[in-house]
Design a protein that fits this description.
Elements lengths: L2 H25 L3 E7 L7 H10 L8 E7 L7 H11 L3 E4 L5 H7 L5 E3 L21 E3 L8 H11 L5 E6 L6 H14 L3 E6 L3 H13 L4 E4 L3 H5 L1 H10 L4 E3 L2 H5 L4 E4 L2 H16 L16 E5 H6 L6 H6 L2 E3 L1
Parallel strand pairs: 1-2, 1-3, 3-4, 4-5, 6-7, 6-8, 8-9, 9-10, 11-12
Antiparallel strand pairs: 10-11
Length: 325
């Protein structure tokens, strides 16, 4: 083969090796994911995007993400679902369980992936955990709200702890069960509880004023999408009232809360990306077993501890998954 012919052959071969993957990429389907956020976007949703990247999906290249924010107004969610149907979304990812049923009422064909839920079978969202049926699958809480451990951590942090305020949202679907678990744990630890309900920002502020009047020594904030939406407001109230507080998710501690112990929404959402991946590859939502991560995450904010004049025992720092400096 002559030198010029050889160079021409090599150039053509090189070009083909470069263009072939590009051509394959061009022919690849661009997936469409509808994302329903019950409140406002929090860092937890970055877990879903990270999970997608870990599985080789880049937003804008392999899929488009259509975000919809209810901002706490769940009446808007059916409208979001109707938009997703018109957009022909391949999957709908739902960050909060409260939004699942409104979406399912609109579409029985588009797969729905729950980023987080509690008792999906008991709440009528699935026929069983192993085989949900219908078009819903995803993640569910293991059922441990961490109440006993949260009170134990407060006892190890606050000297002679005997009186704890509990912030609750009466509209929460887990309202009764969480109170029951907390009361049982408090009784075993010889702690008196002062539960106060709040369902809007003004009531939240009033609740902390009442906690001070009731002379509680610490506060436990229960898991709720409304409270998570106002994480910064709540952590500032606790800090300004000089009330040591423990929270159910790391987002609160990142926002300035003292401690958090509970399920990581970031990890739930990250794991949920695996369901989306399997659906893209042909799996049916109703045949994918609902999964229940069991690991709880403990986070301490050292700066807040110092601001409150608290000395966190070294053994707690040793137990912490994350220490915010």
């Amino acid at each position: 083969m002559k030198r010029r012919e050889c160079l021409s052959f090599l150039t053509s071969a090189t070009a083909a090796s470069i263009l072939a993957p590009l051509a394959a990429r061009a022919q690849q389907k661009l997936w469409r994911v509808g994302i329903v956020v019950g409140g406002v976007r929090t860092p937890a949703y970055d877990g879903f995007l990270q999970g997608m990247r870990e599985r080789g999906y880049i937003s804008g290249r392999d899929y488009t993400a259509d975000w919809r924010f209810a901002d706490g107004r769940f009446i808007r969610i059916p409208g979001f679902a109707e938009e997703f149907v018109k957009l022909k979304c391949d999957v709908i990812f739902v960050g909060t369980m409260t939004a699942v049923e409104p979406v399912r009422q609109v579409t029985k064909s588009i797969p729905i992936v729950m980023g987080y839920s509690t008792d999906p079978v008991g709440n009528g969202l699935a026929a069983s955990m192993a085989r949900p049926g219908g078009n819903v699958t995803g993640l569910a809480s293991a059922g441990d709200d961490g109440s006993a451990k949260q009170l134990e951590l407060l006892q190890k942090t606050v000297p002679a702890l005997k009186r704890v305020g509990v912030l609750r949202n009466p509209d929460s679907p887990t309202y009764a069960s969480v109170l029951k678990n907390t009361q049982a744990a408090a009784s075993a630890a010889d702690i008196a509880l002062v539960p106060i309900d709040a369902s809007d920002p003004q009531q939240i502020e009033d609740a902390f004023t009442d906690f001070v009047k009731e002379r509680v020594q610490a506060v436990k904030v229960t898991a709720d999408v409304l409270f998570l939406r106002y994480a910064k407001v709540i952590t500032d109230l606790a800090r300004n009232r000089r009330l040591p507080a423990i929270f159910p998710q790391a987002e609160y501690t990142m926002a300035g809360g003292l401690m958090s112990y509970g399920e990581s929404m970031f990890e739930f959402y990250r794991h949920a990306a695996g369901f989306v991946d399997r659906i893209f590859k042909g799996a049916k939502a109703g045949e994918l077993p609902i999964e229940q991560p069991t690991r709880l995450q403990f986070v301490i904010n050292r700066n807040t501890a110092a601001a409150l004049g608290l000395s966190i025992p070294p053994e707690l720092y040793a137990l912490a998954d994350i220490v915010i400096e």
